């Protein structure tokens, strides 16, 4: 690579940096227009302007460890006005006079960076990719000529991709914006509607695609999305902590990343056994709750007698019956109650008119709020809160039986509390209960507002009732659903993407599949895939894009030497570069952590504190927290124990075995689970 050219590229990087700081300073210095006045509208506008400025400043902050550009396209002359060459980066940088220095990767002119090939070069003459040090210093570049007789050149894109994947990991997940692959790019740039659902084997880039898709949609549909908001739902806090820096690195700082229980409004304070939890997540519960709620509406036996002065107006019992029959289940519960009051009042009004009176709307409202009408409402259509209904459902066997004819006797028994809490006010609800309460709340009063876009990661694990709760939070928005059916570890998992989309109320969603595994070396994928015929027989075997020498090792120990062997493997892994994880069954990981610490190695237990992954090279990971994470080197202890720990233990093992980027060592004293026996390394 020509030294003068590298020098001039570095100089250009400095110029772009200086321009970005100028853009930043301009926004900081610019006064936010303040509208006078103190009413709500004015206050809202002033706050919104202030917030917009804050977000813009935040987005323009030069992150020292994130290079400002990563590629360059040299176009045929005349392809783009005034520019034959564009630098592509994470955000747009201009020189202050309107001349772009760095073009946002999401802009249409950047697309050929990801899509142009030698046979379809899209007017691109040459693609340049830059290499950077960890401190974001430009260390080199590689050119990929697309024009002319270039067919015999080695595929530089693959070499670059491989180098990028194998760059040792320190801290949280990085963006992949420099090396998004064409099949991923299709999904990243798919339009906002319809919703997209991505099935993909471990390490095919689903999470990466979801995050880049959010950044892309915020670029193309910013106004629409910011109005409703964008939320990413992940499986747990450790996972969210792991992905938290990707979007800010792409300049997007206003996206909520939360777990589903944080999205629902009620906190959980109790737990269920697995049987009850599975049942409470079942789609049939939607019908049970609907019937339970509507059973509060009774059949009127009395009419209404409304008096005004000396006059009396009667609404007959059969008239009230007709109104209730008409309203029942044709509207939500609370508006139905209001409508009943109004319809009774309307009959009273008609009676008044029959007597040549001329009442107006105010009279109708007064009648609707009057005592006799209220008495009928309270007896026929009482006010209820979700907690009251659910408390009765789980403590009153007859009430449950009437509401749940589709459940078996055993299922109903599993739902009933053995010791019902005294009242709904003092009940401690489980997480699955809070999802049911959410459903009831929506049956009573429609959930208002809609997110602009919702991303569900590890969506294969969500129950039907959870999916319904999520779906009603983005009724008019769209969703990106990411997951792998083979990694479904919850007993209540829906089991098919069509069902998942149906429960979300996004049946028009398009299901796509990613098949190339980037994270995991081929030998490790092949090893883990031995589990697939048992855990997901309908899924094809994933392919690994890389092989890595000595990527997989199986170490036999005995009970007495297991911990020492694990320590030895951890020590060996630490001698290499990057992040290391020991993954073991939840009830064994603490004891192995103690052995590692006693041997003088620094480590942290994932889940114990928030930011362990950032600060310590060797992390001890309980098997149930491994989902979605990755490490350069992984040591898995005692697979049989991971399998035995839960009903879907083999699925869990599949997750655990597919976390390594470069090396996986399996240490065991108990026999390996059946499908893994006899694997050749
Ligand atoms: N195009 C790419 N360029 C560079 N790295 C990539 C690319 N695609 C994926 N990767 C890397 O592969 C790894 C796996 O990606 P990701 O976590 O998104 O996969 P996943 O499909 O969500 O996996 P899992 O099912 O295990 O959660 C990450 O390190 C990611 O950065």
From TrEMBL:
> Which amino acid positions bind ATP, per UniProt?
200-207
Protein origin, superkingdom:
Bacteria
Q: Does the keyword Nucleotidyltransferase apply?
A: no
Q: Which residues form the UvrD-like helicase ATP-binding domain?
A: 179-521
What is a single molecular function from GO for this protein?
Answer: DNA binding
- UniProt entry keywords in alphabetical sequence: ATP-binding, Helicase, Hydrolase, Nucleotide-binding
What would be one Gene Ontology cellular-component term for the protein?
cytosol
Q: Where are the transmembrane segments?
A: none
BP term (GO), one: recombinational repair
Protein name, UniProt field: DNA helicase IV
- Source species of the chain: Kribbella solani
């Amino acid at each position: 690579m020509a030294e003068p050219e590298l020098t001039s590229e570095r100089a250009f990087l400095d110029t772009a940096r200086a321009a970005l700081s100028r853009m930043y300073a301009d926004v900081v210095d610019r006064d936010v227009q303040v509208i006078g006045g103190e009413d709500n509208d004015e206050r809202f506008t002033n706050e919104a302007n202030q917030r917009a400025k804050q977000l813009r400043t935040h987005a323009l902050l030069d992150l020292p460890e994130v290079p400002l550009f990563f590629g360059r396209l040299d176009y045929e002359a005349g392809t783009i006005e005034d520019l034959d060459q564009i630098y592509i980066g994470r955000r747009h940088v201009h020189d202050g006079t309107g001349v772009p220095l760095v073009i946002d990767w999401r802009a249409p002119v950047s697309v050929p960076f990801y899509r142009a090939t030698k046979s379809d070069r899209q007017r691109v003459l040459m693609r340049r990719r830059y290499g950077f040090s960890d401190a974001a210093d430009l260390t080199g570049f590689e050119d990929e000529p697309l024009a002319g007789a270039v067919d015999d050149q080695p595929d530089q894109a693959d070499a670059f991709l491989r180098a990028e994947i194998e760059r040792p990991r320190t801290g949280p997940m990085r963006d992949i914006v420099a090396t998004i692959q064409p099949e991923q790019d299709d999904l990243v740039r798919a339009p906002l509607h319809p919703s997209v659902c991505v099935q993909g084997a471990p390490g095919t880039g689903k999470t990466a695609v979801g995050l880049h898709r959010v950044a892309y949609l915020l670029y193309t549909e910013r106004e629409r999305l910011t109005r409703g908001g964008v939320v990413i739902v992940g499986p747990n806090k450790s996972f969210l902590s792991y992905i938290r820096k990707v979007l800010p690195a792409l300049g997007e700082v206003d996206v909520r990343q939360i777990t589903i229980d944080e999205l629902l409004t009620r906190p959980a304070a109790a737990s269920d056994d697995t049987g009850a939890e599975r049942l409470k997540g079942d789609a049939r519960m939607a019908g049970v709750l609907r019937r339970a709620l509507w059973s509060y509406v009774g059949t009127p036996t009395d009419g209404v007698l409304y008096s005004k002065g000396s006059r009396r107006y009667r609404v007959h019992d059969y008239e009230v019956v007709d109104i209730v029959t008409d309203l029942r289940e044709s509207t939500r519960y609370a508006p139905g109650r209001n409508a009943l009051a109004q319809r009774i009042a309307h009959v009273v009004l008609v009676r008044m008119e029959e007597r040549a009176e001329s009442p107006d709307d105010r009279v109708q409202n007064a009648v609707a709020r009057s005592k006799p009408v209220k008495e009928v409402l309270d007896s026929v259509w009482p006010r209820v809160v979700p907690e009251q209904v659910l408390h009765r459902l789980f403590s009153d066997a007859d009430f449950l039986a009437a509401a749940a004819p589709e459940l078996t006797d055993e299922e109903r028994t599993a739902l009933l509390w053995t010791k019902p809490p005294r009242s709904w006010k003092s009940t401690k609800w489980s997480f699955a209960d809070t999802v049911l309460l959410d459903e009831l709340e929506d049956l009573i009063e429609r959930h208002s507002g809609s997110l602009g876009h919702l991303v569900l990661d590890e969506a294969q694990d969500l129950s039907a009732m959870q999916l319904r709760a999520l779906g009603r939070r983005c009724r008019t928005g769209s969703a990106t659903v990411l997951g792998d059916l083979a990694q479904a570890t919850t007993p209540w998992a829906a089991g098919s993407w069509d069902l998942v989309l149906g429960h979300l109320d996004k049946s028009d969603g398009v299901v796509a599949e990613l098949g190339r595994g980037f994270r995991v070396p081929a030998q490790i994928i092949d090893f883990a895939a031995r589990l697939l015929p048992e855990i997901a027989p309908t899924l094809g075997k994933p392919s690994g894009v890389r092989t890595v020498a000595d990527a997989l090792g199986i170490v036999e120990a005995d009970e007495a030497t297991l911990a020492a062997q694990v320590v030895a493997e951890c020590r060996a892994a630490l001698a290499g570069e990057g992040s290391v994880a020991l993954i073991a069954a939840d009830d064994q990981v603490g004891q192995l952590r103690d052995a590692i610490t006693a041997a003088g190695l620094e480590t942290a237990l994932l889940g114990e504190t928030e930011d362990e992954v950032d600060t310590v090279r060797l992390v001890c990971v309980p098997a149930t927290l491994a989902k979605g994470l990755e490490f350069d080197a992984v040591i898995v202890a005692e697979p049989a124990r991971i399998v035995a720990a839960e009903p879907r233990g083999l699925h869990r093992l599949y997750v655990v075995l597919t976390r390594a980027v470069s090396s996986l060592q399996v240490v065991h004293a108990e026999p390996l689970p059946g499908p893994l026996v006899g694997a050749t390394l």
